[in-house]
Amino acid sequence: MTREEFEKAVEQEFPNAVPKKFRPLIKNCAFLVENEPGTEVREREGLGAGETLLGYYHGIPHTARGDTYGVGMTLPDSITLYQLPIEEAAHQDGISVEQVIRETIWHEVAHHFGFDEHQVREREERRDAL
């Protein structure tokens, strides 16, 4: 998949990943696409040689934004989707790249809304059990 095709898939899957009622709450957050996690992210997350990420949220979670958030210069949060690991995961799991993109967006947006990794995984398990 070309980068352009992948970015288009991210754009198309966003509405499928995030329920309509939550979309207006996502503010000051950029969605990015990179090939793989860089050295800084790998070190920050303590990834070993054979480990990777499908996505990464960086910023101030919605729940931690106080009354002064956005006053003055405020850099946007970012949600980065990593194309090569997502394509590899789709291939290994026998599912579409679009499905992995959708799941990754859902996961990272949950972090944006203040859920830690344990809480996100619990919610994914409950959602998948339905």
Automatic annotation (TrEMBL):
CDD domains: MMP_ACEL2062. InterPro entries: Zincin_1 (IPR010428), Zincin_1_sf (IPR038555). Pfam families: Zincin_1. Transmembrane segments: none annotated. This is Metallopeptidase family protein. It comes from Candidatus Adlerbacteria bacterium RIFCSPLOWO2_01_FULL_54_21b.
